[in-house]
Amino acid sequence: MATNFYLRELTKVIGRDIGLPIGNIRKGIFITNAVLCMKPGAMNAPHPSACVKNCGDRSLKPLIDLIRPKAIVTLGVVPTMSVLGLYANLDPELAVLRRSALRDVFSKVPINLNSCRPRLFPMYHPSRLGQMGRERAEPSGSNGWELMKSDRLQMSAIVNLVR
After folding, report:
1. Residue 57's CB: how many other CB atoms inside 10 A?
2. CB-side neighbour CA atoms (13 Å) of 160
3. What percent of the chain is modeled with pLDDT above 90?
4. Ordered domains of the chain (ranges, CATH)
5. What stretches of 14-143 show up as alpha helix (H) in DSSP?
6. Which residue in 26, 19, 24 sits closest to 5, CA to CA?
7. Which end of the chain is more exposed for a tag (fewer CB within 10 A), N or C?
8. pLDDT in tens, 46-76
């Protein structure tokens, strides 16, 4: 699948190849879907808001609390809004961001979700469609794929500063 290829390539940009696990090597990256529940319809069908909320409250938030990551990278609108929704009741600014366009949320990177941890880094989805969206969001007219790689490098530098 092309999206998996692009996702792996983007992790290589920050020095974390998430290729096949070999032995007990730890990569320092945990990947999961933000909306773990099954939704009705096709894969590209919209996510019902009740599904996003229930999955966030029952699965994603407990998982974040268990892992306690330094950074959460969301890929696309639904995961970004799902994570923001988990913390929106703690911070009115997050509630406002949750109602914003991804381009506006993206410009606020990094977003502190509670105190100083975890930090949210909303990113465009690495699919071809996401690459086109990233390209449209940048007034420089640069290539979406190259912009995504640059986004990951900037995110990695910020995360490494707060270790």
Report:
1. 12
2. 8
3. 6
4. 2-14+47-161 (3.40.470.10)
5. 49-55, 61-67, 77-87, 92-98, 102-106, 128-137
6. 19
7. C
8. 777 777 777 788 888 888 888 888 888 888 8
Kindly report, residue by residue over 3-55, the tens digit of the pLDDT: 778 888 888 888 877 766 565 555 567 777 777 676 667 766 677 777 777 77
Hey, what long-range contacts does 66-69 have (CB within 8 A, 24 or more apart)? Answer: 67/30, 68/117, 68/118, 69/30, 69/117, 69/118
Among residues 94, 161, 69, 131, the alpha carbon closest in space to that of 151 is found at 131
143: its two tokens = 């290539």
Residue 46 has φ and ψ, to the nearest 5°, of: -65, 155
Q: What are phi and psi of 71, to 5 degrees?
A: -140, 145
